[in-house]
Design a protein that fits this description.
Blueprint (H helix, E strand, L loop, with lengths): L2 H18 L1 H9 L7 E2 L5 H30 L2 H16 L10 H27 L9 H11 L3 H13 L11 H9 L3 H7 L5 H4 L3 E2 L15
Antiparallel strand pairs: 1-2
Helix pairs in contact: 1-3, 3-4, 3-5, 4-5, 5-6, 5-7
């Protein structure tokens, strides 16, 4: 994974934000119309939302590295790594529909692509192991980011993720003997303890999503 290039790209975008405050102005405009299910701290709501978006972007390199490491331990690196490389390329060489999006404001869109791709891989991993590929829960964070990006563009990004996954990570990967052995190690106490250090990303940052009558899930959307 070319994480140094990802981190350098994020750092340049942060420097641009420090000078122009493009992302902060966008979020300030969005605050009055945020969906009521998105709960922010009563004090400094704009600051909390801005910190959330920056952390959401900054987490991408760490999530990709963690996912690749776990896939290697599970013996499925050959199957997972091409998917993670696609997520990486969403940052380094974004698709044409991202033209004109720059700075942290633009990286929010690219981070959403990367996080959603890993979320889809997690869903397949859960189906086979009963646990996600990586323990950082970005489901709620992705739902909040989806609302910040806005429809229909966020839906276009979801479609880009779906197309990127076509033909990748076939079911046969999960039938390997190395994968079956890894399933047993997942129940080890040290594994469970390690995962507890990876809380929900949105909760870390004081941004929560409250959906009345249902739990937030990977396929949910916040109604406009």
């Amino acid at each position: 994974m070319n994480t140094p290039a990802l981190r350098e790209l994020i750092q340049r975008a942060q420097q641009q934000e420090d000078s122009h405050h493009q992302l902060q102005r966008r979020l300030e405009d969005q605050l009055p119309s945020l969906h009521p299910a998105i709960r922010l701290p009563a004090e400094d709501a704009l600051g909390a939302l801005t910190r959330f978006v920056i952390a959401y972007i900054e987490q991408v390199p760490d999530v990709l590295v963690a996912a690749n490491q776990v896939a290697r331990e599970a013996g499925i690196e050959d199957g997972v790594k091409p998917v993670l490389k696609v997520a990486e390329q969403f940052f380094l060489a974004p698709p044409a529909l991202m033209d004109g999006h720059d700075g942290l404001d633009g990286l929010l869109d690219e981070a959403y692509l990367a996080h959603r791709l890993v979320e889809e891989v997690n869903d397949r991993y859960i189906a086979h192991f009963g646990q996600p590929l990586i323990p950082l829960d970005t489901t709620v964070a992705n739902l909040v980011a989806h609302q910040l990006i806005g429809e229909p563009f966020a839906n276009q990004l979801d479609e880009a993720v779906r197309q990127a996954l076509e033909g990748l990570l076939p079911e046969s990967i999960f039938a390997q003997e190395s994968v079956q052995a890894y399933r047993q190690r997942l129940q080890a106490p040290q594994t469970v303890a390690a995962w507890k250090r990876w809380p929900c990303l949105s909760q870390q940052l004081g941004v929560e999503l409250v959906l009345q009558g249902s739990q937030a899930g990977a396929g949910d959307r916040i109604a406009s």
